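User: Sequence in, structure out. Go.
Assistant: Echoing your sequence, followed by the structure tokens.
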Amino acid sequence: MDERKIIESLSPIERKVLPILEDGMKLDEISEKSGCDKTTVLRALDFLKKKRLVEAKGKLRKIIIAGVNGIYYLKKGLPERRLLNALARERAIAISRIKEIGLN
């Protein structure tokens, strides 16, 4: 494929990102220099990678954010664990006393 065809095949976001790329640049730098948000930059890099115009390396991270229930159970403990702890202390608990140990 000649240069002219490659240039014509570039999308607007690829045209914004490609000229500012330098070896070893991080996503934040590319985003700042191109004036595009990170999602747009990632999309452009993916397009350019598929066209074999750039090589991109990255690290995949999983981020888990605890919601309201997750934070509550982190502080209080899971209901199952609280029941098992109570049973370990008392050996037997009447159903009528379940609310006393903080379960419903």
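User: And one key feature?
Assistant: The chain has a mean pLDDT of 88.
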